[in-house]
Amino acid sequence: MTxxxxxxxxxxxxxxxxxxxxxxxxxxxxxxxxxxxxQRNAIAPYLKLERxxxxxxxxxxxxxxxxxxxxxxxxxxxxxxxxxxxxGNADIRIAGLLPCPVRLPLLESFDAxxxxxxxxxxxxxxxxxxxxxxxxxWIAANIRGIxxxxxxxxxxxxxxxxxxxxxKTIGRFKDQGVFEDICGAAVNPDFxxxxxxxxxxxxxxxxxxxxxxxxxxxxxxDLPIPRRWSDLLEPEFAQxxxxxxGDFDLFNALLLAIHKEHGEEGVKKLGRCMLKSMHPxxxxxxxxxxxxxxxxxxxxxxxFTKMARMVExxxxxxxxxxxxVSPIFMLTKRSTLNxxxxxxxxxxxxxxxxxxxxxxxxxxxxxxxxxxxxxEHPWKWIGWDYIYQHDIGTLIHDTNKIFxxxxxxx
Length: 410
What we know:
By secondary structure, this protein is of the alpha/beta class. The chain has helices at residues 12-18, 23-28, 37-43, 49-55, 60-74, 103-121, 135-142, 162-165, 171-174, 248-273, 280-283, 305-308, 337-347, 350-360, 384-389, 392-407; strands at 92-98, 125-131, 155-159, 204-216, 241-243, 274-277, 297-301, 314-317, 323-332, 379-380. Strand 1 (92-98), helix 6 and strand 2 (125-131) form a beta-alpha-beta unit. Helix 6 (103-121) runs antiparallel to helix 13 (337-347) and helix 10 packs parallel to helix 16 (392-407).
């Protein structure tokens, strides 16, 4: 049997027939019409991959790498996400949201670990590790409203502040001593001096989602190049910036960082600078569209800079005063640590840390992981003092309202 190899002369129809998993890559990178089967069937048989890349001004080799990476993730033929892991009589329950770029490889690795763990201990493990893109709806259905700590998952992992500090969700259990940080005091050298470990020893942080700038030189004109977050609050940046409002975890981290340093007035200015709201997956693909106004500056997770490097005229800037940090938290229930410690140590360990860092560009806090940040990379972290001095759930609600008022949103 001959193995099919992706090449530039293949039509989109051939690619999707052989590797249907690549549809997500096309859609995420600007080929929105491919979502509709009728439109896709009208175009795909005649459109070759090389021409498709040219239409978006993408570097062909880089775009083919994205497709090959997606194919590689699915080459094992068994979709790890379809395995039944919800055992009604499970001894241990794991839940959370995994960053989309690394979810499949993490699930595959985690499934293998759990099979071995169950074989060695006899303990059955139920886990639901959904894609972060389902976010708020999944939290509302599975976490919000739990009144009894015994009904919480034994381990919970996700990015963002709201879920972990909102008194309507997990936040109310923190002061009850329900959780224990199992990561210890050691931290990756890339985060040295940041005081990012929870001083009260409740919450573990395993990695960071970093927010950076992407600037579009094609629409720059006479505008200065922003180097710091405060630059974006200046009048000349009014309606020049795309913000990741659709990425709730990252956007809330950004609002909190601006509020900490610039107060309510800073949040208002952030609203005034926004040209449009975009989810990070939309940001790069919209950079070259002619039919609509394009932002000069886009705030995006560091992961999506992989895509930006495919497009001529775009530049990535790591802010001089630091990339805003949206932590990836892990909560481990103190009462069941005697059973779950090996699983918690796996999820916070070097192997998972390298997967988060190398495949997803989510820098790991594990001290032995090389995050490959071979440049100046300061951080903008709101800090635990600020967290403990505020009701973060209420503050997120209030800053979002201030932001929306600045936009004129009812």
